[in-house]
Design brief:
The complex is a heterodimer of chains A (202) and B (204).
Chain A: H1 2-22, H2 34-46, H3 49-65, H4 69-90, H5 97-113, H6 120-140, H7 148-170, H8 176-201
Helix pairs in contact in A: 2-7, 3-4, 3-5, 3-7, 3-8, 4-6, 4-7, 5-6, 5-8
Chain B: H1 2-22, H2 30-33, H3 36-46, H4 49-65, H5 67-89, H6 98-113, H7 120-142, H8 148-172, H9 176-202
Helix pairs in contact in B: 3-8, 4-5, 4-6, 4-7, 4-8, 4-9, 5-7, 5-8, 6-9, 7-8
Classes of the chains: A mainly alpha (202), B mainly alpha (204).
C-alpha cells in the first residue's frame, strides 16, 4: 500500500518536473527583466562543470554518510556559499578561488571514492569551507542590471537542485553494486577536479 | 431498461437548454464587474517575490510549530497588513529598503531552517511586524490610484489564502523527511537573503 503510494507520488513528481523543465519563461511581471534575473541566477551554478561536480559530490557524500549528514551537508553548503557570494558581491577579495573550487571537487570526490566517514562536524566544516570559494566565484561574476532578489533565489534553488540530484543518485548506496557505483562516481569527480586544478595552474 | 433511459434524454436536454437560455451575461470582463483592482492587488502579491517569500517563510514556520501558531500568524498578519496598507495609502510613494528586505529573508529563513522554538508572543510579533511593514509599502505604492483600497483588499485576500494553505500543509506533515524539506526551504530563503544583503551593499 505504502509502496503503491510512493509510486504514485514519484509519477506525479516526475510529471511536475517534466513540465517545469519544458516551460518557457513567462515574462508576466510588469517589471522588465525579473524573469531573466531568475533564469540567469538559476543557470549560473549549472553553467560551470567544476561547480556542478562539487555540488553533486556534496549530495553523493551526504547520501553515503546517511542521516543526518544527508540533509545537513546540503543545507550547510548553500548557506555558507551565500556568505561567500555576499563577500564577492561586496567586493571583498578571496585569494585562490579557482584553486579552491578545483580542490573542493578533488577532496569531495576522494571522500566519496574512499567512503571516508569523518565526524559530522568535520564533514560540515569541510563542505562549508569549500562552499565559500564557490559562492565567492559566483558573487564576483554576477551580471549587472538583474533583479537581485530573483537572481539570488534562482541561484540558491539551482544549487539545492544539484545537491538533490547528488542525493538522488546517492540513494543507490543501499545496494552493493550501488556502493561501487558511487565510489566510481566519486573517482570521476576527483579526476574532474584534478583537471580543473591543472587548468587553473596552466 | 435502455428505452426507459432514452426516454429521459429529451427532457434532460430540454432542461439543460432552458438553463442555457436563461443564463445571464457572464460579465467576465473586469471593466464590467469592477473587479479589476481586486485582481490587481491579488496578483501583485502573488507576483512579487519580495512580499511572497517572507510571508511563505512565516507560514511554514508557524505550521512547523502547530495549529495555534498557524491560526495566530494567519489572523495577525492579515490585520497588520490591512492596517499597514491603509496607513500607507495616504502616504507618499516609498520604495522598500533593500537591507530590510534582505533582513526579513535572513530572519525568517534562518528561524525556519533552525526550526526555532518560538513562543506564541514572538510569532505574533513577527507576523505583526511583517504585515505592517509590507502592508505599508504596498499601500504607498497603491496610493496614486483611486481604487487602492479595493486592490489592498485583493492583496490581503491573497496573503490570507497563502498563509492558510502553507501553514495547514505543514501542520499535516507527519513524516520526518517532509519536515526536513520545509527546513531546507528555510535555509534556501536565508541563503537568498544573504545574497540580497551583498547585492544591497554593492549597489548602495
Amino acid at each position: 500500500m505504502r509502496s503503491e503510494g510512493h509510486r504514485i507520488l514519484a509519477r506525479w513528481l516526475g510529471l511536475v518536473l517534466l513540465i517545469l523543465l519544458w516551460t518557457q519563461s513567462a515574462f508576466a511581471h510588469p517589471q522588465k527583466g525579473e524573469a531573466v534575473g531568475f533564469l540567469t541566477g538559476f543557470r549560473h551554478p549549472i553553467s560551470g562543470l567544476d561547480h556542478v561536480l562539487a555540488m553533486i559530490a556534496v549530495g553523493l557524500w551526504g547520501a553515503q554518510l546517511g542521516n543526518p549528514a544527508i540533509w545537513l551537508l546540503p543545507v550547510a553548503f548553500p548557506m555558507v556559499m551565500a556568505i561567500g557570494g555576499m563577500l564577492g558581491l561586496m567586493g571583498i577579495p578571496l585569494p585562490f578561488t579557482e584553486y579552491g573550487i578545483a580542490l573542493s571537487a578533488i577532496m569531495l570526490g576522494t571522500a566519496v571514492l574512499f567512503e571516508i566517514r569523518p565526524p559530522l562536524t568535520v564533514a560540515a566544516v569541510l563542505v562549508s569551507c569549500f562552499a565559500i570559494f564557490h559562492g565567492h566565484a559566483h558573487g564576483t561574476e554576477l551580471p549587472p542590471g538583474e533583479s537581485a532578489l530573483l537572481y539570488s533565489v534562482g541561484f540558491v534553488i539551482a544549487t539545492g537542485c544539484l545537491h538533490a540530484l547528488g542525493i538522488g543518485i546517492g540513494t543507490v548506496h543501499r545496494w552493493r553494486w550501488g556502493q561501487k557505483f558511487l565510489r566510481g562516481a566519486g573517482g570521476l569527480v576527483a579526476i574532474g577536479g584534478a583537471f580543473f586544478l591543472w587548468k587553473a595552474f596552466a | 431498461m435502455n428505452s426507459a433511459r432514452r426516454s429521459w434524454l429529451p427532457i434532460h436536454a430540454f432542461v439543460v437548454f432552458s438553463f442555457l437560455m436563461y443564463a445571464s451575461p457572464a460579465e467576465a470582463h473586469l471593466n464590467a464587474t469592477g473587479m479589476g483592482p481586486l485582481y490587481d492587488g491579488l496578483l501583485h502579491f502573488l507576483m512579487s517575490p519580495e512580499d511572497l517569500i517572507p510571508v511563505l517563510a512565516l507560514a511554514l514556520l508557524a505550521g512547523l510549530r502547530g495549529g495555534a501558531y498557524g491560526r495566530r500568524a494567519l489572523f495577525t498578519i492579515l490585520g497588520a497588513w490591512l492596517i499597514g496598507g491603509l496607513v500607507g495609502i495616504g502616504s507618499a510613494t516609498k520604495d522598500g529598503n533593500p537591507f530590510v528586505s534582505a533582513a526579513w529573508f535572513l530572519l525568517l529563513g534562518g528561524l525556519l531552517a533552525s526550526d526555532a522554538k518560538l513562543s506564541l508572543c514572538v510569532m505574533t510579533a513577527l507576523a505583526a511586524s511583517l504585515g505592517l511593514y509590507n502592508g505599508y509599502l504596498n499601500g504607498t505604492g497603491m496610493g496614486q490610484f483611486s481604487t487602492a483600497s479595493v486592490a489592498l483588499l485583493g492583496l490581503v485576500f491573497a496573503v490570507f489564502v497563502l498563509v492558510a494553505l502553507a501553514a495547514a500543509l505543514v501542520i499535516t506533515l507527519r513524516v520526518q523527511w517532509t519536515q526536513i524539506v520545509v527546513r531546507v526551504a528555510g535555509s534556501w530563503i536565508a541563503a537568498s537573503g544573504l545574497l540580497m544583503l551583498g547585492w544591497a551593499v554593492r549597489t548602495r
